[in-house]
Specification:
Blueprint: H1 11-19, H2 26-29, H3 37-49, H4 59-100, E1 104-108, E2 111-112, E3 120-126, E4 130-138, E5 144-153, E6 156-162, H5 167-171, E7 176-183, E8 188-191, E9 194-203, E10 212-215, E11 219-222, E12 229-230
Antiparallel strand pairs: 1-9, 1-12, 2-7, 3-6, 3-9, 4-5, 4-7, 7-8, 9-10, 10-11
Helix pairs in contact: 1-3
Length: about 230
Amino acid sequence: MSIIDPSSQTQLDSILKKLGVNDQAEAEAKGKETLGQSDFLKLMTTQLQNQDPFAPMENAEFIAQMAQFSTVTGISEIGETLKDVAAQMGEFRVATATNLLGSQVMVPGNYARADANGEINGVIDLPSASYNTNLTFTNAAGDILHSIELGAQPSGLVGFVWEDVPQSVIDSDTPVRIEAYGDFGNGVEGITPSVFAEVLAASKGDAVTGVTLDVRDYGEVLATDVAKFRR
């Protein structure tokens, strides 16, 4: 049994030479960036065969090397799994974008159109209790078309609906402007409502942005920014 002289070269260099990694198998090693499981087993076997009989490898050291190889192998397998997950997520984004076409999503904004039932629905988020809460609906010329008095309301989300929107407003093919107001103890303050708007188109986006929606009257909106959607 040969014994490695630590003063002339490291034990690892000697093992690699015996495996022919540096000399004999140089041509085969071209293009090969990592050692596989069989390479590792050969490496371990040669290391055991050429260890110093007066200072054999400790069990803990042997187990540590096995654990390191298992860790590297596990990381590689995780990487491949993540690639598969990323591909599946891309398919999921396509399906999500397709399903949202023709739906209505709730977005913050002051413009709304009547839905298929001839109604305009939305919510306002009150930062604190309001002594008096109301909404006005105006056309492009600034004429008041409708108003809603909600009175005193606690903090939080408060829904509203304008039922039976006149057909003339619907036929005008222009959005209605909604202004919301609340009195929180320091006078009347404006509040931005959230309303339902139609999804005209959607794109799957990428892993960072996700699905992007083209919302009528609002342009591009990230699907992650949508609080609610309905058919």
